[in-house]
Amino acid sequence: MSTDSEILARSRNSPSAFAELFERHSASVGAFVKRRIGADAAEDVLSETFLVAFRRRADFDTGWESARPWLLGIASRVLKKHRADEARQWRAAAASAHREGTSHEGGIDDATVRMDAATAIRELAPRIAALSARDRETLLLYAWGGLTQEEVAAALGIPVGTVGSRLNRIRRKLAPPGSHSVARLTWMGKEDADGRLGAGA
């Protein structure tokens, strides 16, 4: 099976080869986008993401076998045009959490709690929405994009140490109000047993 890097190299002279990259990654990129802005606008963002990727295929760093971090980085930049849609998604999630009367007592900080991702996102929605745009982008590429810290760094064009620093700062910001400890991001499935953020799973 060809690597993404090989497909992109081939597509420079044979543009039709790019279709294989779309077939390989459109579902995961589409799922990431849909969670960010909802189904209505997701198709447009997905189309634009792959159009940009096709036009810039010669710029791909062939040192990476997988194009997924690159594609998610492009999607993240395209998503900036859809901030209103994303804000609406977060407001809906926060309203859902409020309606359900969600309690944070002992929740995220309790090492024995294992919530599924959807429930955790609803509970954390107000605090995630309050993060700075760059912190939220880092968190969601890591959590929803399923990227390692190294891949997040490549997607955003920043040092990997910056990614680690942001994720640790985010853990503190997502802790329940009044808590003296940091949030355990167990809903990511990416934490070491002692609660430190790992490099990804």
UniProtKB/TrEMBL annotation:
Q: Which UniProt keywords apply?
A: Sigma factor, Transcription, Transcription regulation
Which InterPro entries does the entry mention? RNA_pol_sigma-70-like, RNA_pol_sigma-70_dom, RNA_pol_sigma70_r2, RNA_pol_sigma70_r4_t2, RNA_pol_sigma_r2, RNA_pol_sigma_r3/r4-like, WH-like_DNA-bd_sf
Q: Enumerate the spans annotated as RNA polymerase sigma factor 70 region 4 type domain.
A: 127-174
Q: Where does the record place the RNA polymerase sigma-70 region domain?
A: 21-88
Listed GO biological process terms = DNA-templated transcription initiation
Which superkingdom, per the lineage? Bacteria
Instruction: Tell me one GO molecular function of this protein.
Output: sigma factor activity
Matching PANTHER family = RNA POLYMERASE ECF-TYPE SIGMA FACTO, RNA POLYMERASE SIGMA FACTOR RFAY-RELATED
Q: So what family is this one in? A: Belongs to the sigma-70 factor family. ECF subfamily.
Task: Supply the name of the protein.
Answer: Sigma-70 family RNA polymerase sigma factor
Task: Name its species.
Answer: Microbacterium sp. LWS13-1.2
In the record, what lineage is assigned to the organism producing the protein? Bacteria, Bacillati, Actinomycetota, Actinomycetes, Micrococcales
